[in-house]
Amino acid sequence: MTAILFTEHAAANGKKIIQATLNSEKSLNALTLEMIELLAPKLPEWEADEAVAAVILDGAGDKAFCAGGDIRNLYKGMVGDNDNPDFVETFFTEEYQLDHAIHCFTKPLIVWGGGIVMGGGLGLMAGANYRVVTETSRIAMPEVSIGLYPDVGGSWFLNRMPGRVGLFLGLTASGLNAADCRYVGLGDRFVSTDKRGLLIEQLQAVEWGSDLEDLHHGVNTVLRQLEQDSLEQLPESQVLKHFDTINALMDHYELKDIVAAILALETDDRWLQKAQGAVKAGSPAAMALIFAQLKRSKHLSLKEVFQAELVLSLNCGKAGEFAEGVRALLIDKDGKPDWRFKSLETVDQNWIEGLFVSPWSDADHPLAQL
């Protein structure tokens, strides 16, 4: 089975629309190294091809665009049960190169973010210049539950959300719907699922011009109309509904006080209760790491963000907490991770600081040439 299906749709004025479909419906289109290596070289080709008017990146089926990275093979790499001893470094390096390239892609790139979008899927989606969300979109960065941190550019986009929402989402793994995504800056257009086929048809019919402005004008016109015909299905934004509560909970200088405020909140609201549950069960080390990550990355450039995240991800792959979280939730599925630190109070800050120490010089960093 081909990991990505590439389809060319003939369009007006000699142009074509490229559709790249993550093709692993059974795994909810989890992002594999093979997918990354198939997609990455295509981006410069599409940029250079004057016939390419726009690119659509989507996932097979209706359940998910992409439910995360290839966690099972990453786990094998972390515990030494993999033929490639460098798999973890290779995977994250090539994933972040691809994510960065998507951020920098100048032609219209439409990501159809319907269904589940988590982790590595959000890395593909966040940098696209047209991020479509639907009534089925369920988007989250659940890394605190597996002893990791929101990577794939999370340092960039979480820090650019309104108020203190980014930190809240990182610490609580809270899910976002389509309206939430539009509010926090992860979704550009809301289009109902039944218009998925119509999107391609209408893009094919655009009277395409030749320069970038014309290409973007054509895509934006189509998406704007599809959105106007869909808005009656837009759900209520949970983030906007709870915005003042979120900011109040995050309004503490120290992490221990933030976590205490979340756990002390008395509420009947299911969305907030799920946030509390994620904090109760999550890795204390991951919470400390996320808190430090977002502070350190606040003023980094996009290139610096991905370079810093590669350091963190490689070190997390070696430190054990990430592997233990994956084991408990996804491999053995016993739901009982044996976290290194049992509470925030016992987290060793020197251990956290060590995760930020690069194993490379600046010149030798695998992402030095971004």
Automatic annotation (TrEMBL):
Q: Which GO terms describe its biological process?
A: L-valine catabolic process
What GO molecular function annotations does the UniProt record carry, in alphabetical order? 3-hydroxyisobutyryl-CoA hydrolase activity; isomerase activity
SUPFAM superfamilies, alphabetically? ClpP/crotonase (SSF52096)
Q: Offer a single GO CC term for the protein.
A: cytosol
CDD domains to which the protein is assigned, alphabetical: crotonase-like
Reported EC number(s) for this entry are 3.1.2.4
Q: Which reaction does it catalyse?
A: 3-hydroxy-2-methylpropanoyl-CoA + H2O = 3-hydroxy-2-methylpropanoate + CoA + H(+)
- A Pfam family annotated for this chain is ECH_2
- The EC class name is hydrolase
Residue ranges of domain Enoyl-CoA hydratase/isomerase in the record? 20-356
**Keywords assigned by UniProt, alphabetized:** Hydrolase, Isomerase
Q: Report whether Electron transport shows up as a keyword of the record.
A: no
| NCBIfam families associated with the record | PRK05617.1
- Its name, as the record gives it, is 3-hydroxyisobutyryl-CoA hydrolase
Organism source for this protein?
Answer: Motiliproteus coralliicola
Classification of source organism: Bacteria, Pseudomonadati, Pseudomonadota, Gammaproteobacteria, Oceanospirillales
